[in-house]
Amino acid sequence: LKPNICDSFGEMCDSAHHEEGAARMLDRATVLAEAGSFRKAADMFARVAAASGSLACTAHEAQAQCLMEMEEWEEACTSAARAVELRPDWAVARATLARAQLNSGMLQDAVESFSLATSLCARGAPTDAELIAELAPQLQEARTLLDRHWCQDHDHLLQRSGRSLRIRQRFPCRYCRLTGEDGPGNSVWLGGLVLSRFLDVDVDSKLALRGARVLELGSGTGVAGITAAANGAQVLLTDRESLLPLLRLNIDLNTSSVSAAGGGMDCAAFDWLAPPPACVRGCSLVLGADLVYSFASVTPFANALAAVLSSGQARAIYAHNPRSPELDAEMYRALSERGLHSRPLKTPDVVTLKGESEEVLGRVVVP
């Protein structure tokens, strides 16, 4: 047994000596950083992180600070994230990650990291109060920049019935976590704007909306249905399950304006290839916009529309953006076969989408 005991003791001595060497290197790197030699310090902190298990978290966080001083934001994010991974409950590392994310333009991630760092400080030692005071204005700055980004780059702002509506869109973006992975339903399209404006300016429609139960098919961002709710309707927005988070977000963004008008909103999944859920029954008005954009979409759309109109007590308003005479003919044929007939309604002549004037192309379908 003696050789094994000696071997173990030797390993312990080697390990202790190794950690002492890493600690001395950490001290030297800290001196370099304080002297402004950020490149040398960052490289030495990296060596400490690779050499020492116990000091790796501290070294990664310090390296991230040096990288930020050199405006190497993405590399700083990587180092700070590694520190957080090694010690998730260390508020300092979270705060450093938040600053790196903010400087690299990852606004939503920065807001979350600043919030987590503040929460960790609140649960920590009394000495963390100083860090909380430091983080408060930085968190507010990140929130302000994120909200400004959403307003400028993702939100479509509308004035309807004297009220401001804010419709958020999702598409690939490096500044926040909104993505466009769920297809065209993530964006505001011309057909939705046409229908939204029609509902807001047509006197008969505005009067009919107050207190009405309205269903919107293929809501996407919900621009038409939310306009109906802003005119006093009780609206159910429907689309695929994957688009419900965006619909809930837009409901939240416009709840105040809709409530002031006496309207209400909710959302639910409606897969047109499955039987209609019970919640889509009993409406007095069905809305839809730009839902037929390929031959493959004709039959599911016609089936869904016929199903929700089967009681005979409702009508539908559909804003259609023609893409080809053949596709239009196929759509009208499918509707006619299901007992639905159409007539045109006068729509606004021009709408504005992303600053460009577009000709209105609208159709209205009624049972």
UniProtKB/TrEMBL annotation:
Gene3D superfamilies on file: Tetratricopeptide repeat domain, Vaccinia Virus protein VP39
InterPro entries: Methyltransf_16, SAM-dependent_MTases_sf, TPR-like_helical_dom_sf
Source organism, top-level taxon: Eukaryota
Pfam families reported for this sequence: Methyltransf_16 (PF10294)
PANTHER family assigned to the protein according to its UniProt record, in alphabetical order: HEPATOCELLULAR CARCINOMA-ASSOCIATED ANTIGEN
Protein name (Swiss-Prot/TrEMBL): Calmodulin-lysine N-methyltransferase
Biological source species: Noctiluca scintillans
